[in-house]
Design goal:
alpha/beta, 60s Ribosomal Protein L30, Chain: A, Alpha/beta knot, five-stranded mixed β-sheet, 9 helices, RNA methyltransferase activity, RNA methyltransferase, MRM3-like_sub_bind, methyltransferase, RNA binding
């Protein structure tokens, strides 16, 4: 068995470019790390372009799966975590074509990768149909978002890099009501909301939702807080709203 031991190998250098947003955008591919995400990719029938496995983890590779053996040092150069799990795969981005539009989540300029990944994972757990992210949000294919999502992007439609203005038109065409989360004198307690089909908008960590979102909302909604904290983490707030709604 041939083993790649040089980080300057052409395939390794090409794969390493996918650690950057520019590299992912140019190639249409992204990296996943770990056997759990590999299993989720296989279940979703995602297109695996290449699989790199460190020599000490070869016995864990599913039978019949083609892979390239690499040294532990080479594998570490492709991994983003402090303790690599011994496998990194290149995955082709999946286009979200036909999907249900009953309950969707819109992330408007949410910039923290952990928040983005957590909200997509929560949307998956809460049975939402799709998640849309605006072009100023964290890249859903970045390693940090991947770790937080834990493969949920394989379970529901995820559409990234869309302008909010276009999203408003899209959800209107789908017959959804726009439910915007914001602390406002015109917002109502989420417990009073009665909607079957809607798009829930969560805003930027520091600035909240935009004026445009508020202006176009069918309903503004908030979570009442009996304590003294000024606000909730956006991912926590989204989790409360998604499961309640």
């Amino acid at each position: 068995m041939e083993i790649i031991t040089s980080k300057e190998n052409k395939k390794i250098k090409s794969a390493r470019q996918l650690l950057t947003r520019k590299g992912r955008k140019q190639s249409g591919n992204y990296l996943i790390e770990g056997f759990h995400l590999l299993e989720e990719a296989l279940k979703a029938k995602a297109e695996l372009v290449e699989i790199f496995v460190s020599t000490d983890k070869i016995e864990k590779v599913p039978a019949g799966l083609s892979f390239i053996a690499v040294s532990a040092d080479v594998l570490r150069s492709l991994a983003s975590s402090d303790t690599p799990q011994g496998i990194v795969a290149i995955v082709k981005k999946m286009e979200a074509d036909d999907f249900e539009m009953g309950k969707v989540l819109i992330l408007e300029d949410v910039q923290d990768p952990g928040n983005v990944g957590t909200m997509i994972r929560t949307a998956d757990a809460a049975g939402f149909d799709a998640v849309f992210t605006t072009n100023a949000s964290a890249d859903i294919y970045s390693p940090k978002v991947m770790r937080a999502m834990q493969g949920s992007h394989f379970h529901l439609a995820v559409v990234d890099g869309v302008t909010f203005e276009n999203l408003v038109g899209f959800v209107r065409d789908a017959g959804l009501e726009l439910l915007v989360s914001t602390l406002s004198k015109n917002s109502i307690n989420y417990k009073a909301v009665k909607m079957d089909r809607f798009a829930l908008v969560m805003g930027n960590e520091g600035n909240g939702v935009s004026d445009f979102a508020v202006k176009n909302a069918d309903q503004l909604v908030h979570i009442e807080m009996p304590g003294q904290a000024e606000s909730l983490n956006v991912a926590v707030a989204a989790g409360i709203l998604m499961f309640a709604l």
